Amino acid sequence: MNAQTIIAKRIALELRSGMLVNLGIGIPTLVANYVPDGIQVYFQSENGLIGTGPVPEEGFAHPKLTDAGGKAVSALPGACTFDSAVSFGLIRGGHVDMTVLGGLQVDAAGLLANWMIPGKMVPGMGGAMDLVTGAKRVVVAMQHTAKGKPKIVPKCNLPLTSARPVDLIVTEMAVLALSDGRLKLMEIAPGVSVEQVLAATEAELEVPADVPVMPIR
Amino acid sequence: MKRISLEDAVALIPNGASLVIGGFMGVGTPERICDELVRQGKRDLTVIANDTALPGVGIGKLITAGLVRKAIVSHIGLNPETQQQKIAGTLEVELVPQGTLIERIRCGGYGLGGVLTPTGVGTLAEEGKRKIEVEGSEYLLETPIKADFALVHAMFADYTGNLRYVLTARNFNPMAAMAGATVIATADHIVPVGVIPPDDVMTPAVIVDHLVANL
């Protein structure tokens, strides 16, 4: 299983029926492919849709039914559409139960940086600042390291996305949760040791005596 | 009479004008107006919109043609030309969180002096802004945005200029329409009065100044 699949499958286990969920672009989008059987969630696209469905069958795409990347999607029964003020009212107003976003860095206090690398890459924050500030639960989906360098650091040196800490970080190596303001190692990926996780992490982690393996298949 | 030709509509827009434009990654953007802006070679435009789409799509065409001096947007990650022009210094880009941008445009059109949002507190987005505490929480005062022209695109317009958007092509359009001193609309279908039921009108005709004739 590749890194992205491990991350997406593990995050999908956080879904509960009835949730309104916003997935960012990149790895987060893949979470929709692994919704567990029997679980029904509403996916929001921040361009104005609740009930985002899979890519439509050939010939069924509508040019005005798209995701936040501008790609054609379908809409599931019960879907609704709205303008951007409503869409961000849902986000800032605490009506989104869970958001899954990519990350460049997360620090020991759970703060996320994911919208710019000064002097290099400035894609813009899009909806990320609103999502991290307003969603009930914020989950970061990212690879544990970038070109061998840890992305989970004592303090972010990239510009922050929000002053609000994230709740859960899922990488291809581990699941980390913010507990009493500190990062705690919750699970390790199959075939990965606690020592390997610690070696790939710069931030200090609380490590329980027993760390279970991610329940993914 | 609101009917106007595409050429005449775009001729109303002077060089240096500010434009608030509907659309999200080109979906719901008045594509024909973008094409005509390029054809007429407008310059030094300020564009206020969610994003700059992709090269060859909607606002992306204005970027490629070098018509834009300043862009106030939430995201440019999918248009490498916008990033290149920003890095080269030929295009000024003001990045605004998406939920803040739509509220600033809404304030501009709705006669409000600004909005208080928690988004951006403790980040680079708070630079130069007033922080106001309300009931123990910190907010940023975000100021209204208005523009000389609003350029919007609907699925349906009736002869009087009532507009109805559909699906995810609504996005910024209703708020943009309110925030332009002069409002120019295009529509996929121009239909008789009554075809759009009153309850389905999303932008009232009274605020649409010009409805561009279809071919």
From TrEMBL, chain A:
The keyword Transferase applies. InterPro entries: 3-oxoacid_CoA-transf_B, CoA_trans_fam_I, CoA_transf_AS, NagB/RpiA_transferase-like. It comes from the Bacteria. GO terms for molecular function: CoA-transferase activity. Keywords: Transferase. The keyword Transmembrane helix does not apply. Belongs to the 3-oxoacid CoA-transferase subunit B family. This is Acetate CoA/acetoacetate CoA-transferase beta subunit. It comes from Thiocapsa roseopersicina. The lineage of its organism: Bacteria, Pseudomonadati, Pseudomonadota, Gammaproteobacteria, Chromatiales.
From TrEMBL, chain B:
GO terms for molecular function: CoA-transferase activity. InterPro entries: 3-oxoacid_CoA-transf_A, CoA_trans_fam_I, CoA_transf_BS, NagB/RpiA_transferase-like. SMART domains: CoA_trans. Keywords: Transferase. It comes from the Bacteria. The keyword Nucleotide-binding does not apply. It holds the Pfam family CoA_trans. Signal peptide: none annotated. PANTHER family: ACETATE COA-TRANSFERASE SUBUNIT ALPHA, KETOACID-COENZYME A TRANSFERASE. Belongs to the 3-oxoacid CoA-transferase subunit A family. This is Acetate CoA/acetoacetate CoA-transferase alpha subunit.
